[in-house]
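fyi for ur records
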Amino acid sequence: MTVAAVVIGRNEGARLIACLAALEGQVDQVIYVDSGSTDGSVAAAQSRGALVVALDMTQPFTAARARNAGLEKVAEGVEFVQFLDGDCALREGWIATARTFLEDHPDVAVVCGRRRERFPDASIYNRLIDREWDTPVGQALACGGDALMRVAPLRDLGGYRDSLIAGEEPELCVRLHQAGWQIWRLDAEMTWHDAEITRLSQWWKRSQRAGHAFAEGAALHGGPPERHWVAERRRALIWGVALPLAILVLALLISPWALLLLGIYPLQILRLSRHGGLAWAALTTFSKFAEGLGAVQYHLRRMSGRKSEIIEYK
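which gave:
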């Protein structure tokens, strides 16, 4: 056997069935890690020949822990493993393209391609997420949840960091870089994804998770040369926390006229809109408040010694 696939999911329903169907004929082994589904996902995966791993839900759930549980079940002799979220479906031909690239480039540990939203017009959020997935082609700093990886270096590094509630893939890539490996984004179609974000509250929670990941990633690898997510954490804390608090304090202690300083946010939206349009600029600016909250939550929990809580947005 050459290639295995590890799929993680919980209550993905028809999306999981589509995910497993797309893997048929493309990989040699399919492992599905279920995180407490109640919609028949386990039976559906078993009926399609997948090896099912039921994650121990008495322990705090993280996608990293689920992926590691799947990695443990990859058969001996398998050289590559394709990681997938259960709301994704592999594109025809991706495995062959990615495997060939890895075979031709022995210094590359991870390859990813173009993830696309299946329903980008369902909401402004889906449309912006589809744009977010379109990362530059070539050597990259990180991959996302969908990627084909070499099994050996992944196991050598102990897999994903179990404790991370988000951002586990970029953190793994930092460690791979430190070990001398490369990550590449190929100009090839890789997966369909269904974000299914239709409400502002979901976008807020997603951004809050991102802020938490920025803070935790910077705490782990913020020193040089990586400076992992230091700039992202700084922007979240300045725009989402420091500036609004400073303006509020000025308004309370000096003059209510200080609230006019909040006009910096519409100006920021106009500045950003020149690069990505008004909707993208507005939601990007709005996201900084959620990201700032997530970053503050991480630092408060770290100071108190408490474990981070999972931030669900679906």
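The longest strand covers residues 182-193. thats all i got for now
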